[in-house]
Amino acid sequence: xxxxxxxxxxxxxxxxxxxxxxxxxxxxxxxxxxxxxxxxxxxxxxxxxxxxxxxxxxxxxxxxxxxxxxxxxxxxxxxxxxxxxxxxxxxxxxxxxxxxxxxxxxxxxxxxxxxxxxxxxxxxxxxxxxxxxxxxxxxxxxxxxxxxxxxxxxxxxxxxxxxxxxxxxxxxxxxxxxxxxxxxxxxxxxxxxxxxxxxxxxxxxxxxxxxxxxxxxxxxxxxxxxxxxxxxxxxxxxxxxxxxxxxxxxxxxxxxxxxxxxxxxxxxxxxxxxxxxxxxxxxxxxxxxxxxxxxxxxxxxxxxxxxxxxxxxxxxxxxxxxxxxxxxxxxxxxxxxxxxxxxxxxxxxxxxxxxxxxxxxxxxxxxxxxxxxxxxxxxxxxxxxxxxxxxxxxxxxxxxxxxxxxxxxxxxxxxxxxxxxxxxxxxxxxxxxxxxxxxxxxxxxxxxxxxxxxxxxxxxxxxxxxxxxxxxxxxxxxxxxxxxxxxxxxxxxxxxxxxxxxxxxxxxxxxxxxxxxxxxxxxxxxxxxxxxxxxxxxxxxxxxxxxxxxxxxxxxxxxxxxxxxxxxxxxxxxxxxxxxxxxxxxxxxxxxxxxxxxxxxxxxxxxxxxxxxxxxxxxxxxxxxxxxxxxxxxxxxxxxxxxxx
Length: 645
Prior knowledge:
The chain is about 50% helix and about 10% strand. It starts with 6 loop residues before the first helix and ends with a helix.
């Protein structure tokens, strides 16, 4: 078995990898001050972005849930890999050759991480299927595509392939590439019978299903031949890579447009995604054999930066009963979005692919453009279930539809829809408004009631006494999971603690500011807040050996501080400094350090003034004169600091 990766290589991978580029593959990041970026946290569900990335120091920190780390830990957590596998993946990404403690060039084939091995097998299969599409045996598959308006260029754009009709075409190909049957069983690409494993996909058109990073993790296969006894669509079963509740077909192609246009279009099938993209709707994705659910929403919200500043989610459904049912299921999840949700239904019942075939690209764009608010669709669908020609039917419809109107988040729109509902029901506006108001009140009471009958207190609330509360921009208390039991929680109202925190933010993020005489002054500064004092002592112990490389500087410091303080160090290293230009950062850092040193001078002066007051000038004239000289020198230093700032 291969040895451990050499420490210097791990450091090199960490240093040479742009953490922002890696995180961008999972989270939409926006600028949050010079050198800082923010997005919705991929580790917990949130409405306001509190996940901060600072490439200069190579770290991320969520001020909501407390998750923090470097680029290696990010890949570990998001891709569910070991440390070893994450380093290898990142090294491969930047083309860096790793070296191992046993002197080898890396693990042999049997030692490669299971996940990466599965990904490699899917990549080989993806290439195999695509190559098969242009063979004579794939004529039926090509005819299917052409019949739906997709030419060869479209097939190549979406990686569409073909699975031959034989029982072991892919099996032989992957065995020839060195994969064992034990490995292939884990891919989901094969079925097992009395004589062993055989191809799961046979005589079908194939779509590669990729994750948000662009890695193929499964396949969707469409039946082509009448003698195929299988379902119309056959997908990869659940595997270590493929979790259908967490997969959106086309997300790898759509993610940039979703983030740029603040729009997500959810369609029902692979060909619908293709039709939308080719028609000029590059924000379209589809679920894979399951309803659009909670895990899909988490992916969508991160890409949309769903923080209340706009954005829209548009669902397209068939106009039949099944389509309406799907739309209502989507409405049940509406409250998980801050973005506005809409539904687009073609009156004829045509899906985007059929619409493009019959009426062209513009018809697909018009369909998306004709979207209606999802809550309007839900209200009308609710009314359809009742006989509005009778008093009893109208009352029943009001009772069922009033809570739907109450769910409308925009308080300005809600009364307008109450009036619309009154018109649709043929009932007095006042009566409908009262019903909606009562439903709104009930919903608010239910939302405010703590689970299990407990009382108040949100996670990490400043008054909860848990974790740390900072004074820097955008700083929130650390969550309970990051409570530091050995240290008292710094009081954010204490000006001295605030000053010490800001000085540490500067030291961690701009260690180059500490060189020369400044380092001597910083080292001699006395911190009074226990947690900040411990970090200051760790900085002194670490020294300036890595100050020229902020990534390694912070990494070394994390190894030096007591373990309970590591989340705080991570937080201090990524909190945005309040400056928008390099010159502004320089001025801010100089000002903060000058204030720290001035505070230090003030403390020393107070001590010496006390000594002076306790002296008898006539009995100790030399000490009296010395203390006066020292006080004068301290005052000159203080004035010098102010003039430099």
